[in-house]
Write a structure and sequence with these properties.
The complex is a heterotrimer of chains A (761), B (139) and C (115). Chain A has 31 helices and 2 strands. With 761 residues, chain A is mostly helical. A two-stranded antiparallel sheet of chain A has the order 1-2. Chain C has 115 residues and is mainly α. In chain C, helix 2 packs antiparallel against helix 3. Classes of the chains: A mainly alpha (761), B mainly alpha (139), C mainly alpha (115). The interface between A and C is large, with 105 and 90 residues.
């Protein structure tokens, strides 16, 4: 299973080459990949539907609890088949839609990487792995929305989607890690088994909130729904795939997957159900107010995502089965309608429904696909959408005393019915519109895909029994226990659900006819999108302000800030220590040592205060020699020798360079000078205290013992310092001489830079 | 600095300093010294030349260009780690070879010495490259 | 004695830090050099001071590790001295180059990276 997740990434690498080699056929060639994946998954399907799971684990970073663990169960299989199946169609459709585009290869890289990431999300059995793939889908989605990166709207839409889903992703990571800590396992299947532990934990509300935040942002639930319509800037096949059929379902998948661990509580029921219900109604209502085909479809997608979330909130067998069927139905009809919208845009030059009409005569194949998909979306027989809607209604009616819930679902059904009319009927029937281009039938690649999707919807509607096993095993996986068999049928007999369906159809027709008037209704202009903009503006101005203050371009203020902050924080920490262990002891000082120290201190003062750089350099040399003497006095002859030679070389070097620099002094005002001096002095004082503090530490260290005792026997050397450098810690030394070499090359390179031709020195 | 006296002294000192630097390198394992000090001393032999006359003449007298020294030294140091790999030990583990010479002389060859010699060459090359580069600026 | 060395280390740090906060390039270099000395001496002092006895094992004998200076910080400081030289040289080259390009050794004039 690792292979099928990685395969799309590998093919993605090859995609640009294939597209350059054969730009016309590359869509068809690349579609072979998802086709192969579909066949492979189908071959596993009987096993999974029999109640078994397919598991594959490869160790990655075991010390971090990180395994490449994959697990295929009923829920994962349902999603995986949807991803790969619709993937086949989207991949070859894109070849026609973007035919001749110069970045076709780049598009396929992102699209195939998305396919792989999405498969990873639904197959991963490790929370970290899940998160990695989850974020990869956000990133590939960003790339696809911003594919047409020369348009500002596309860039903004891409960034918005990334920020919203990315923020949610971080919350999700936090939630998943907390859940993993509580249950003690990073394995998702293990996490699900520890559901009781999670639900009884005092942090359960926090975990739930974080994970829901991740799922709701991804699945565009209210109030995070606003990014999805803006994501419609993506090329239409990408919208169809990511923002209707698959990626936005990742949040739904996550809720379903974690139901055994987090679900079943009142908190879950109310949060998830209510969010789903609000999203369902708001999305469907807003869809009717739009005139752009893709916008209508986007808002209706939000509405459907709300329905799926609501079903998971309800959380019983009927709801889960309805969720599984409605998921498939929606993927098929919405994918088809998006692809139809793309074809219409491609051939007629506009997606505005007020300018479209009567396309059925010029684009008959596209019209058939649109009509079939539209019927499914409206929830009419004999399409699978009808079965889905019936199941949703029934699931909502099983909730005792929740008549409002049923009413809400029915209302959403009516609104969606009208939206379906707008998207699928309006452009193709009635009087001819006034599109910018003279419409004619789209090429085969553009109508075959939607037709196949809509045809599958019809097929599954007529033979719903084919979905029995898949629905039952998906519901079982959500429940966490084997589920009773499901028997689906197109016609359920005359019951309340059917009556409600008739009602919604009637109300939907009325809404469809009156939608021009609906658009004129005034609506408040503020909303979550405004909050997003305000938040973004706030971050920007905060960043600008702090840049102005902190990044002012004056080196000395940077240094001043850093030094003062370090002194402040370290000083505070030291002051908090109850007793500073000072090992001060003056008793053993000898006369020549005092003289040496005085010489060094005077030299430092001269180096700092002298107005002449030559004097300062000389004083610096004296300081260096003083260092060497200290090393001699305290048993470090190697250091002393090195220090002396380095000191001489340094002074020579400084004298050489001083000639090329001006000898101007730039006196600062007394005020700032005093400020700098006091900051520097307090830093010096602090470090002096630190040195005194070290005197209390027991010497010598264990390391000294090891090195001294083993120097001769193990390394055959009597100079322990050299043995450490050249034997015990030789790899460090190798690194250090490399640093020296790099510094020298850097000096050389800076000089070469000056000698670049055409530049005056 | 065009002092005849200094220039003459430098000419006498240079071979002496070079000799001392190699001596310091070789005795480093047992007595104070080693590749770092040795390399710096070796560089200062030429630096003296550079200061008393000019960097150009010092550079010409050098048998190998400083950046060649840099690379060669790094290669030596890194190569000293390879014999250990042949023995199946971790990179840079010290290896010693005792060799008997005629006239009852014993000689001990070790990768540690090769490494320290590499350090010597790198440090010398780096110091010289720096001196020559920065010194030339003023002329 | 550690008290005296603590004063030396503290003064070196104070002087070095004060110098790197000046406006003139060459003072920055001198400040860096002082800071290099300060850090070397800090490591050396912090490891404990033992007068006069280096960690040199006598030929054919052994050495009591309590009686000699700790060799590990010495090894650290030794490479630090040489690397400090390399860094100082690099800073010098940078300063020289900056002066040639910008035409000023005033750090306040060098606020932008685009010259």
């Amino acid at each position: 299973m690792l292979t099928i997740t990685i395969a799309p990434f590998l093919v993605a690498i090859l995609a640009p080459a294939i597209c350059r080699f054969t730009p016309r056929a590359c869509g068809w060639i690349l579609a072979l990949l998802p086709l192969g994946l579909v066949l492979y998954l189908a071959s596993l399907a009987p096993t999974v539907w029999n109640g078994q799971t397919v598991v594959a684990t490869t160790s990655w970073a075991p010390s971090l609890g990180l395994d490449l663990a994959f697990r295929l169960d009923g829920l994962g299989l349902l999603f995986a088949l949807l991803i790969t199946g619709i993937g086949v169609i989207v991949v070859f459709y894109s070849g026609g839609y973007l035919a001749g585009h110069r970045h076709l290869g780049r598009y396929y890289v992102a699209l195939l990487m998305f396919l792989g990431s999405m498969l990873g999300v639904v197959l991963a059995d490790n929370v970290i792995l899940l998160f990695v793939f989850w974020e990869l889908t956000s990133i590939t989605s960003y790339l696809l929305i911003g594919f047409d990166h020369e348009r500002e709207a596309a860039r903004n839409g891409a960034l918005q989607a990334l920020l919203v889903t990315g923020t949610g992703g971080l919350a999700l990571l936090a939630g998943l890690l907390m859940a993993a800590q509580i249950t003690g396992t990073y394995q998702i299947s293990g996490l699900l088994a520890g559901g009781d532990l999670l639900r009884d934990h005092p942090l359960y509300p926090a975990v739930l909130a974080l994970i829901l935040l991740g799922a709701f942002t991804k699945s565009a639930q209210f109030p995070f729904h606003f990014w999805l319509p803006n994501a419609m800037e993506a090329p239409t096949p990408a919208s169809a795939y990511l923002h209707a059929a698959t990626m936005v379902k990742a949040g739904v998948y996550l809720l379903a997957r974690l139901t055994p661990a987090l679900g079943g509580t009142d908190l879950w029921w109310w949060t998830v159900t209510l969010t789903g219900a609000v999203t369902m109604l708001a999305g469907a209502w807003l869809a009717l107010r739009k005139t752009d085909l893709k916008q209508i479809l986007a808002y209706s997608t939000i509405s459907v995502l709300g329905i799926l979330t609501l079903l998971l909130g309800i959380g019983d067998e009927a709801a889960w089965t309805a969720m599984a069927i409605y998921l498939v139905a929606h993927g098929l009809y919405k994918g088809a309608l998006f692809l139809v919208a793309g074809a219409v845009d491609h051939e007629a030059g506009t997606r505005d429904i007020t300018r479209l009409g009567g396309l059925r005569s010029s684009m008959p194949m596209t019209a058939i696909a649109a009509l079939a998909a539209g019927v499914s979306m409206a929830g009419l027989p004999p399409m699978v959408g009808f079965i889905g809607k019936e199941l949703v209604l029934e699931a909502s009616m099983r909730q005792q005393g929740m008549i409002t819930l049923t009413a809400a679902v029915a209302a959403a059904g009516a609104l969606l019915f009208a939206a379906a009319g707008l998207a699928a009927v309006r452009p193709f029937f009635g009087a001819a519109g006034s599109p910018p281009k003279d419409p004619h039938e789209a090429p085969l690649t553009l109508w075959l895909g939607p037709l196949l999707l809509a045809g599958s919807g019809l097929l599954l509607g007529l033979a719903p029994g084919w979905m029995n096993a898949a629905a039952a095993s998906a519901a079982g996986a959500i429940a966490g226990s084997p589920s009773p068999p499901v028997k689906l049928a197109l016609f359920h007999g005359f019951n309340t659900a059917l009556l409600l369906s008739l009602l919604t159809a009637a109300a939907g027709t009325a809404l469809y006819l009156g939608c021009a008037r609906l658009r004129k209704l005034a609506m408040p202009q503020w909303g979550p999108a405004g909050w997003y903009d305000a938040a973004l503006d706030g971050v920007m101005s905060l960043a600008a302000a702090q840049t102005r203050i902190l990044q002012n371009g004056y080196l000395r203020y940077y240094l001043l800030t850093m030094i003062a902050a370090t002194v402040g924080l370290t000083g505070y920490a030291i002051a908090r220590l109850t007793a500073l262990p000072l090992g001060a002891n003056l008793g053993d000082v000898q006369f020549h040592e005092v003289v040496l120290v005085i010489v060094i201190l005077v030299s430092v003062a001269v180096a700092v205060r002298s107005p002449s750089s030559v004097t300062a350099v000389a004083a610096l040399g004296v300081v260096g020699l003083g260092m060497a003497l200290i090393f001699v006095l305290f048993g470090a002859p190697d250091l002393a020798m090195t220090q002396v030679v380095v000191d001489i070389l340094t002074v020579v070097l400084l004298v050489l360079v001083l000639h090329s620099l001006p000898q101007v002094s730039r006196p600062t005002k007394p005020g700032p000078r005093f400020r700098d001096a006091s900051v520097a002095s307090s830093a010096g004082l602090l470090i002096g205290l630190l040195v005194l503090g070290t005197a209390a530490i027991e010497h010598p260290a264990d390391s000294a013992r090891y090195f001294i005792e083993n120097s001769l026997p193990l390394a055959g050397g009597r100079n322990v310092v050299n043995v450490i450098l050249a034997d015990f810690r030789v790899l460090d030394t190798l690194g250090e001489v490399t640093v020296i070499a790099v510094a020298a090359v850097g000096v050389f390179a800076l000089r070469r830079l000056r000698e670049r031709p055409g530049e005056k020195s | 600095m065009n002092s005849v006296l200094l220039a003459t002294a430098a000419r006498l000192f240079k071979p002496l300093l070079l000799l001392v630097s190699v001596f310091v390198l070789l005795r480093g394992h047992d007595e104070p010294g080693g590749g770092f000090v040795g390399g710096l001393l070796g560089a200062s032999a030429y630096a003296l030349d550079a200061v008393t006359r000019n960097t150009g003449s010092a550079r010409r007298k050098l048998p190998l260009a400083p950046h060649v020294l840099l690379g060669a030294g790094l290669l030596m140091a890194a190569a000293s780690g390879l014999p250990a790999l042949l023995q199946g030990e971790p990179f840079l583990t010290a290896q010693r070879y005792e060799a008997a010479l005629p006239f009852a002389l014993q000689i001990t060859l070790s990768t540690v010495l090769l490494f320290d010699a590499g350090v010597y060459v790198v440090v010398m090359g780096a110091a010289l490259l720096i001196m020559f580069t920065l010194g030339e600026e003023q002329i | 004695m550690i008290l005296l060395l603590a004063i030396v280390v503290g003064s070196l740090y104070a002087g070095g830090l004060y110098m790197i906060m000046r406006r003139v390039l060459i003072k920055l270099i001198i400040g860096l050099a002082l800071l290099a000395h300060a850090s070397n001496l800090l490591i050396f002092t912090a490891s404990g001071l033992i007068r006069g006895r280096a960690a040199l094992v006598p030929a054919g004998g052994s050495l009591d590790f309590r009686q000699v200076a700790d060799p590990l910080p010495q090894a650290l400081a030794l490479t630090a001295i040489v690397i400090g030289f390399g860094v100082l040289a690099f800073a010098l080259a940078l300063v020289q180059r900056t002066y040639q390009v910008v035409g000023s050794d005033d750090l306040d004039q060098i606020r932008s990276t685009d010259t």
